[in-house]
Structure formats: structure tokens, C-alpha cells
Amino acid sequence: MIRTDKLVFEYIRRDEEGNVEGITRAVDDVNIDVRPGQFIAVLGHNGSGKSTLAKHFNALLYPTDGEVIVDGMNTRDSEKIWDIRQEAGMIFQNPDNQIIGQVVEEDVGFGPENMGVPTEEIWERVDESLRAVNMLDFRKSSPNHLSGGQKQRVSIAGVIAMHPKCIIMDEPTAMLDPNGRKDVIRAARALNSVEGITVILITHYMEEVIYADKVFVMDKGHVEMQGTPKEIFSQVDKLKELRLGVPQVTLLAHELKKSGLPLPDGILTKEEFVEELKKLKR
Amino acid sequence: MSIILDHVNYIYDEDTAMAHAALTDVNIKIDAGEFIGLIGHTGSGKSTLIQHMNGLVKPTSGTVYFDGKDISDPEFDRKALRAKVGLVFQYPEHQLFETDCFKDVCFGPKNLGLSQKEVELRAYEALKQVGFDDDYFYQSPFDLSGGQKRRVAIAGVLAMKPEILILDEPTAGLDPKGREDILGLIKKLHDEVGITIILVSHSMDDVADYVGRIIVMNKGKVVFDDVPKEVFRHRQELESIGLAAPQVTYVMQELKASGFDVDIDVTTLDEAKNEILRVFSK
Amino acid sequence: MLRDITLGQYYRTESIIHKLDPRVKIVGTFVFLVAIFMVNNAIGYAIAGLFLAMNIKLSNVPVRFIFRGMRSIFLLLMISVLFNLFLTPGDPMFTVWKIKVTKEGLKLAAKMAVRLVFLITGSSLMTLTTTPNNLTDGLESILKPLKLVHVPVHEISMMMSIALRFIPILLEETDKIMKAQMARCADFESGSIINRAKNMVPLLVPLFISAFRRAMDLAMAMEARCYRGGEGRTKMKPLVYHKEDKVAYVVLVLFLIICVAVGRMKF
Predict the structure, then answer these.
(1) Prediction pTM value
(2) Out of C214, C226, C233, whose CB is closest to A85?
(3) CB distance from B12 to chain C under 8 Å?
């Protein structure tokens, strides 16, 4: 679905007079292969290059070196750029700064309008998209009167209405409260499992990635770790080094293990944790 | 230092069709040296409440007393109050405006009409208190990372030498390490500098490890006001207002339900660890 | 809350006026404005008033809500009334202290007041019954002929609609930054004008930075959603005239004819 090949992205820093101060390598030799239907999580602390990477997936940024292939299309191919952006939708961090319409349904229709979808079909797409994120009741509302989580779900609907094969979510929950966070993640998981849309979730909330098929951990523009959530969260100390944490249950199990209880690494849910403790008791 | 809110009510947009109660009969007493967590989901009234404490918002009815004096008394020196009750807003880095960090931190003390020497002394001290590196003092705040900017913004309030510091979601948008750093910093300010702290959050996990008292708000009312253990006992009520007890509490509950003889009043990771170890060492 | 300012605000309800094509409402408002400046006798104003009242009734917008918007222009209204009242030469009716009030002045003041009230009420009725998006769509469509002379009509209307969406957000942000600086003992209220202007810096710098950040974010979000200008764009809500709209046009023409015919008669 999305493949990067030795992807490098550099940008030039300039001082106030416009002189070149230096060159920063924000993404450094990244090779990623995302297959259709996967739920992918990208973890990394602020400034690790994960957002820059994400913006390459739908041709908002172009590689300095290397290649990004989206569904067989190279993002360098300027004729394919709109097809790429339609197939790989993007959700950003700030819920206020990505809603264009002044009424929920008009915002959801914005993408299809740009693509030149016939009017009748736009309405069908808006209906189904708002239903998919459970926001149909708010279709006539003004976005200014919605909560952060609701706004993000409207943004997701706006992307779904473009019928993408893949959705890239760039820290969609960073500015939300716990309830909004839950709703957005639930919507993302439903899209992935029900509609079969590939989801790439960029986040630094550990709890949000435990259901991912695969996790990439970024640091200084590199992919530092990759694997299943279990494999990743088994390495508590390494994650801490990368300015990240682990879910609380995982941390508790890790601490207990250090104190001598023979627990396995990478326990992700409290159910798992209780099961393991039960085994120990016997 | 003490703040007393006596039967405080606040109505938004009074006299209009949109009038609604933001605070209803709030009675709170805050004493010197406390470390308080103020919890509630978005729209619960917690932001309105803290703005009452430094006189930014006047109650529709009821009285706010600072050190026994009514702060809406025309004789009362509100400028002095705002210096003593420091309020750090959500995303405080969005208020930075000066050309360098040091100047920005000087803004508060300068407004107090102090001598240039005193202003600079306080700014220096405040920046040191938040662990800000000397090298960055004369850098533009806009070139810093998110976590560093936030430190500068907090220093900007600290430089007024507040006796009480209120922080609205100080960790919002930061990565796990950044969150930990800021919370550690706040704890240090409480323990070492002796500042009274009110930490506003919507996450119990953030506050459980630190605070000695939790005030829970819902729909403009104070629902609980007690030590953490007591508050977390009301798990069902908390959930019904869109909040949750810390994750470890749920783990312990699950263990208890599976026949482990653990104390379910545990709220922090360390306590949970010790409790489980205790059960297993029997 | 600042989110709910009345200026250009849309009042959500169901009504025949709400359903009308925005182009009809824009043309209608224009016709109404022309009419109230053409008539110059009491009957003419009565007709215009009646027409306005009928529209308000049909719009289902509470009268109270419409007149709330009046508060802001009350001062302007008073000033123009007083000016006309006291400064028009002519037949003196009575004198207040040293100032003569003339018959002509009274007439002119009344006329000004009625015109202003009608003007504001009429145009706010348009904004109250039309979503801003609809309104910009309507404008875009009405101004379409200007495209021939290379006026970027689509871009202008897109800019207007984005501005309308962000005004409440930026107002709220202003409030927030102001409070945050006040928490640092900033003073926005006292001092000389120069000092006060200087004191606005801590408010304006963060506000501009935030506005730019939002603009960049929004531009990127629009690009990500395949926005590339007006070319090849379809509409979710294309403007199509229905039967009611045609009827409304006929009513408007009739209204204008009656106003001109009756309103300019000399008795």
C-alpha cells in the first residue's frame, strides 16, 4: 500500500537574514512497507521526525532522496499527486485547523467537491461517512460548537468521503481529552476492521497502539525499532531511552519482574496480566 | 495564604438566550502548602473555577476570599492578587511574545512595577527553577522545542513569585518524557520551593502519583473533594461523569475479582507493585 | 461566549425564507435597500415596513433576536438622528436651550432613523436566514460574470467563507491570550492612548503567530483534501432555482414597482 525506499528528507535552516545556517535531516534512511488492510502505529517523541515522515505519505512533502510509493504511484510523479492524495487521506493534530466548512456536512463534502464528484453522490458519501464515525446527528451543526473529539471525527468523515484506501493520522488525539481520545481511536479501529481501510496512526500515547498490527518507533529520523506491540513493549528500558513510555499495565508487570516475579515480557492488557499472575499462583 | 470560595455561582452570558450555569454553589478552601488535583472533563467548569481564584472572572453570586479578604471589594489590590495566585493557562507557550526568552519572563515582574534589577533577578531565578539552560536565555522562544517553550512560559508566571501556582493541563500535547519532566518540575516547586499547587487535568493517571487532595468537578459542581484514595473509591460515579480511576486501580480490582487477596484502594504504580509482591510473598 | 456573537450570525430554524436560494435573498436585500432610498413618503415607508415585517414573520426568526443586533448600532443611530434633528435649517417648531428644532429637521431625522433601522434589519434578516457558506456561494454565483474580466471570484468567496469560519475561533483565542497576559499582570485598560497601544503588543504578537500557524495548517489540510482552486470542482449544494424562488422574484419586482409608484407620489 505504502512503501518507502531509503527515504531521506532534509530541510535548510536559515537565519533571520535568510542565510543558510545548517541542514537538518528530519527523516533519515527510512524503509517502511505497509500492506493493505494493516493497522500501523508510528511512535516517537516530539521532534523524532514522525510527522515529517507522515507528510510524505500523501505527497505533502517530497523526499530529498529515496522514494515513496503509494499504491504503485511514485509521489515524485506530479501527474499522480491528486490520485495519491485521494487514496491516502490525512488527519492532522489540531481539530480546529482542518475543518473548512461552517456546517459539519459541508465540511465532509469538501473533499469530494474538490475531486469533482457529482452532487448526488457527494450526498451519499457524506451520509455514509458521517454514519461511519457516528456523527450523523450533528450533520447540521456548526463545528465551533463541537468538542475536540467530535471535530476530529468530522475530519475523519471528511477523509472517508474521499474513499481513500489508507488514512494517515498525525497525532489525532494529542489535543483531546481522554474521552475524545477513546472515540477517535475507536473510530479509527472500526474503519480498519469494518471497512478494511489501511490506518497509519502516529501518536505518543502508548495505550493507543496496543491493537496495532505493527509498530514503528522513530528517533532522530530513523526507524529505531519495529515489530508487534508485544515485541516493542517488551523493551521497556529501550523505550524509556527514546523518551517514550509503556502502558501502565506493561510497566507494572515490568517492575514486578524486576522485583523477582517470573512474568513474561510485553504484557499489554490487564486481562493478560491477571491471567499471568494466576498462572504464577498455581 | 488561603483561598476560600464561598457559595460561588457563575452564569455565562447572563441576560441572553444562551445563558447557562458554569459554576453552581462551589465551596472550596485551599490552604498554604497543599498539592491539589482539579479533575473534570472538558466543559465541567474547572477552567472557569480557576479563573475565579485570581480575579480574572467575577462570580455572578457568592464570594472569593484571599487571605480573608473579599477579592471583589473595590479596595482590593487585584494586581497583587494575580502575582500571588499564578495562573498558567493551557498551552501557555502560545502567549510568548518577546524576542528572547529572558525578556519574556521579565514581562510579569515588570508589570508589578519592580526595579529593573529586581525584575532581572527574578527572571533569572525563575528560569533556573524550571531547569532552563543558560545557553538558551537569549534565544527567541519560537525556536525552542515544545517542552522548552512551556518551561519558559511557566517561568514567566513563577517570576512574579506566586504563593500558589495553578496550572491548567500543563502536560497537554507533550510526549511521555516531556510530561514526566513537567510533572517532576511541578512536584519540585511544591516540595522544595514550597509553592501551593493546583494541577488541573482530565487524567487521573497524571495526578494520582503527586497530589494530596483531589477535587472532582462535573457540570459546574464540585462532586468530590477528598484525598485520592477516598475519591477513587467512587469508581462507578467517576465513570458516569466521563472520568476514570487510575489504571492500576482497575488492575487491582480485576485481581481481587480473580481471587487474589489484594487491597483495591491502591492508586499508584509503586503501591500496586508492593501490594502484589506482598500477596505473592505469603 | 464570544463564539456566539450576533454579527453575521445564522439563526437555525425551518422557514420559507431559509429555504430560498441565496441569490434571491441577496438580490432581494439589494432591491429592498434601493426601495427604502427611493420612497419618500409615509405610505412608501409603511409599505416597505409591511414588506419587512412580512418577511420577518415568514422567517420564523424571533423579533427579539433580530433587534439584539441593533444594540451595536444604536449609538450610530442616535448620532445621525440628533444631527438631523438639530442641524437642519427650516421652520422652527420649538427650541431646546439654544438649539432650534425645525419641522424639516424632525422629518429628516425620522426618515433617517426609519431608513437605518430598515437597512440593518433587512440585511441582518439575510444573514440570519442564510448560512455563511450559502451566502458566499450565492455571491460567487452572482459575481460570476466578473470572471470574464479576470476577477478571481471563486478565490474571493473561498477566502470569505474561511474568514467567517475563523473569526469566532480567533475571537476566542484573543480572549484567552488576553486573560493569560492579565494573569501576568498585564494592563489593557488604563494609561494614555500611546501606552495602551504599546500594551497591546503582548496580545497582538501571539495572536498573529497563532493566526499564521492556523493558516499554514489549514492550507496543508486543504491540499491534503485535494483542493486545487475552483477548476473542476463540483458542488455539494449547487444553487438551483425552485418554484418558490421564482415566486419570490415576482414578489420582489411587484414590491419595487409599488414602492416606486406609491412611495414617490406627492400628496
Answers:
(1) 0.85
(2) C226
(3) yes
